[in-house]
Every structure is written in structure tokens, then in C-alpha cells.
């Protein structure tokens, strides 16, 4: 028996089908095996009974938000750089330590066996700008597809970029975008949602305006501030920046999981640098791409349509020199601390490979680098 998604939102239409039959009729679920954990709990492994094929299973408490996530994710499928959804069930499930069974959406997705993008970068022995460009090309292809459908992902971050397979060489790996938990059709005003290190300036501005309006210090504008596709482009800029140097463009003076006022100010002023120690080996074209993506004014910021045709993505002129980023990113605790306010809820990541020599860093203002210098 199947039931169709009710029309939750006038702007969201889908032919998506939710099965109300029990998932265990079709799949064997490995409830104890977690592939990774997010705010909605662990993503589990399951096996299709009639084929023996393995999939990932995300369990979401049934709600309007969860249904919107699944609908928008489904609308962006299929695409070679977006994690595919195969089946969705609405079942009543009771987890250990729960007093009663609760209605849940069980989302059967393509299994991404290669883990998260940054874990693989850390393992790379010779990570170059050329490889970073090849990775970016795949990310941009996913974003282009979403934006073409008028859907903004709004939570583009390394944890949501998964690799299809484990591989010795990142250049041969397929990267796919996951987690449409914050995705929205790009229309009108929405509640600011973000992970601090990837938050775009206009989101902070929107938040500020909303605060002023709530406190009565300002009358609401006729045209609302929007949280749109350009936020995704900002996040892409942050991801490229981190790939090329190993630390984020905006960071507080002292490590903090929260978005500090100082960091907020830096984001809104577009205040970041390209320190020579790590950026000396990076091309001017790459820096220019980052500048166009981290542009404070969303109107001037590079769009995905402009970026997809950028020659940097071809990697033809990118230097083959080894970047310092894998070594710097090895201090994953420090990176997560300053990068992601959600880090505590995410999966315990793999132990980094320490078999290769870290390059010495002479001086650093960045807290991640400072911490590394102290530790050595
Ligand atoms: N298709 C998949 N295959 C393998 N692992 C996956 C898959 N989807 C998600 N994971 C793992 O589970 C983690 C959590 O997944 P996801 O980000 O979708 O959950 P969430 O609860 O929405 O998380 P967040 O806290 O980022 O909002 C991912 O970071 C990843 O490690």
C-alpha cells in the first residue's frame, strides 16, 4: 500500500511516493550499524532483500520539515553528484529508550562508501590545486543542478559532501551532495539557518534586521531580505578556501564552536587574507575565484551559472605543487572546533593517517595553526 505526500507547501510539488508498508518486508535494516550521525540521529545500513544490494537509511521523525527535506532532495534526483533516494517509507518505529513508537520517514539512499570529503583530503599524500579544482567541479555541478531547479541547498559544508567509494586518488572519485535538511525553494523570506563557518553575510544581515524588527526598533521592510542561492555560492567559496589551505577564511580569535561577534563582523566585512605561507603555492586564478565567491554583496557574488564555465574548474593551468592543507587539516579536532558548531553531533571521524611528514610552519595567526605550532 502506498500513500502520496500530502501537499505541504503550495510551492512544492512532487510525484514522490511514500510507502506505508513495513520497510522490513523489502529491506533488512542493520539498526546497530551507524554510517554517520547528524542532528536527526544515525544513518544506518540496510540491504535490499531481493537483490542483496546495500543502501544507507536515514530516519527522520515525520514532520512537515522532514517531508520538505525528502521532497526537495527527491526533486534534485537523479544527478551524478547528488546522493540518490530510492525508497521512502512512513512507518511507526520505536527506538531503544523511547517510551512509545513514533511515526518516522525512512529514507533509503544510495550508499556512499567513501566517507566524507575532508577525511579523504587528509589522507592525500600529494594534494594539489588541480585536484581541488576537479573536486570543486563536481560540487559546482550538483549546485548548478539544484539552482536550475530553483532549490537552494543552504547547508553546503564538507560533512555533506560524500564520496562514492574509497580511493587512493581523489581525482578518480565521485563526490555527491547529501543532506537536504535545510534546502528550500529559493523564494522570499525564510528563517536564517546556518552552520557558522559557512554562513553568508546577507544571512547575518537578515538576522540583524529581524532582531531589530522584533524589538520594535525598525519597521519591517516592504521587500524582505532573502536567503537565496547566493548563500550556496558563499559556502562553495569557503569550502574551496579550506581545501586550498587547510583552515577557514573566517575564524574567531580564540577557538569557539559558536559564531562569535568578532567572526560575525569579519564575515560581514569580507575580512579574510591569503597568508603567504600556505597561499604562496596557489594560483592567482584560484584566489580570484575565492574573492568572487566570498564577495559580501550577494548581487555581485559569482553565480553558479558563471562559475560552471570558469576555466579554473578545468584545472589546466592549476599548479601541480603540493598544498599544505592535508597536513593542516590533520588536526581535525581544532579544525572542527573552529569550523562547525554542529561538530559534536556529527560522526566520530576516522583517525588521520600520520605516516607522512608535516611541513614545518614558521609563524601563524590562525588559531588552528597556532595550536599545531604549540603541539610540535
Ligand atoms: N548516503 C549515505 N551513505 C553513507 N553515509 C551517509 C549517507 N548519508 C549520510 N551519511 C552519513 O551520515 C551523516 C549524517 O547524515 P546527514 O548529514 O544526512 O544527517 P543530518 O541528521 O541531516 O545531519 P546534519 O547534522 O548535518 O544536519 C553524514 O555526515 C555521513 O557521515
From TrEMBL:
<dbReference type="InterPro" id="IPR008271">
    <property type="entry name" value="Ser/Thr_kinase_AS"/>
</dbReference>
<dbReference type="GO" id="GO:0004674">
    <property type="term" value="F:protein serine/threonine kinase activity"/>
</dbReference>
<dbReference type="InterPro" id="IPR050205">
    <property type="entry name" value="CDPK_Ser/Thr_kinases"/>
</dbReference>
<dbReference type="GO" id="GO:0005524">
    <property type="term" value="F:ATP binding"/>
</dbReference>
<keyword id="KW-0723">Serine/threonine-protein kinase</keyword>
<dbReference type="InterPro" id="IPR011009">
    <property type="entry name" value="Kinase-like_dom_sf"/>
</dbReference>
<comment type="similarity">
    <text>Belongs to the protein kinase superfamily. CAMK Ser/Thr protein kinase family.</text>
</comment>
<keyword id="KW-0547">Nucleotide-binding</keyword>
<keyword id="KW-0067">ATP-binding</keyword>
<dbReference type="InterPro" id="IPR000719">
    <property type="entry name" value="Prot_kinase_dom"/>
</dbReference>
<keyword id="KW-0808">Transferase</keyword>
<keyword id="KW-0418">Kinase</keyword>
<protein>
    <recommendedName>
        <fullName>non-specific serine/threonine protein kinase</fullName>
        <ecNumber>2.7.11.1</ecNumber>
    </recommendedName>
</protein>
<dbReference type="InterPro" id="IPR027442">
    <property type="entry name" value="MAPKAPK_C"/>
</dbReference>
<feature type="domain" description="Protein kinase">
    <location>
        <begin position="29"/>
        <end position="313"/>
    </location>
</feature>
<dbReference type="Pfam" id="PF00069">
    <property type="entry name" value="Pkinase"/>
</dbReference>
<keyword id="KW-0597">Phosphoprotein</keyword>
